[in-house]
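It is time I had a proper look at our fold encoding. Can you supply me with one protein entry, sequence and fold together? It will help me judge whether the discrete encoding reads sensibly. Leave the record below and I will have a look:
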Amino acid sequence: MKLIDKLKRLTGENIPKDMVDEAKRIHQSSPSRKTEIDELRHRIETVMNRRPLQPKTSTGGENNLAEIVPGEEIENEHGRFFLVSDIVSGSSRHGHRNIREAFDFDMTAAAMLANNPSISQYCSSDALFLDTETTGLAGGTGTMAFLIGLGWFDEGHFHVRQILARDFGEERAALFYLSQIASQKKFLVTFNGKAFDVNLLTTRFILNRLKSDLAGLPHLDLLHPSRRILGHRLENSRLVTLEEQVLGVQREGDIPGWEIPQRYFDWLRKRDGRLLVAIFEHNRLDVISMATLTAHLVEILTAQAMAQYAHADDYLAAARLLLTRSNAQGVEKILNIFQENSCTDFSPVSKKKLAQLYKRTGRLNEAAQIWQELAACKPVEFYAISELAKWLEHRAREHHQARILVENALNQANTFSTEERESLLHRLKRLNAKLEE
């Protein structure tokens, strides 16, 4: 398809003949004629910006978007777009918790989740929660964010704004409005936004020759800490999975993400507002869930108490995350929770993780208690025998007890590999030598 044909299809207008002739002439001329190319581009943009909406009649009759989705047309210096505004009361429930429970989350913990210390300087009301619905899931310069969902805390409520470009000609006005909102906030919260949403929007700002500081804002991408803290017990780390299995949110009749681009293209052809209702609701829930997910992750990281809907293994994963952030105080706080709560229902794998945390933080006596429990299990595993033998030999100085432990393990049912057996035999030889001295 020729460039002019593509332009006609995009704008829905007949391009003036003089513009067509001019485009052909410039296309065939020297590439150095940058000024004339810029002039033609400017004239094309003029056509795009003055283009009125041209709703088409659907098979079920024309449906006005504003009558189906409670929103309004907004106009700024770059054109028009459609805006839906919603205020979610603090008393409203979203899964297991009220929205107000997501307010005023600990900013030091949020900075730890983001691995960005600058976020600790701000407060929760400085956060801009952002999620986009796009014309394609692969990204690239041909993909547009036709719906941009925003959320923020203000005066005890959660405010949601959804910016819709009703066609491609409204993108610039929509992006300009986004930049105005973003300029009032201090940091971003997204779900997979570092890899997708922010990069896509940055590209669209450039293509529309608009300035934006969006990419420069400190950024908490919830996908990464969610994987590290919660991923151990989930089939995948998609937001909808986290909603169902962690936040207690059950979506009914939700549109799958892969269907959204085609639904928007159907809207462009039919102009039937019913096609967009499910997309708006999907996007709205995404934005709200990011707020409650942030609160949930912060609650685990700060370890105020064992949260009602959290798993003990979530805290172990959070402690390991804090270790990588060199936050010894945070790790200690989480470990103290396990001193106050029974860990009898821990699986052997979880007990190993807890013992390793005790060991890495210097709490070897507590680690040894777990190694003793694991060493008493049948068949015996190398990890428990090896760690307990090392503690008995080097820490407790109980060489005789260490020798008995290793000998019994080697002579009873076990799961040792050849390499592990050789390691224990080498330890036994050294223990015998020490006892003979």
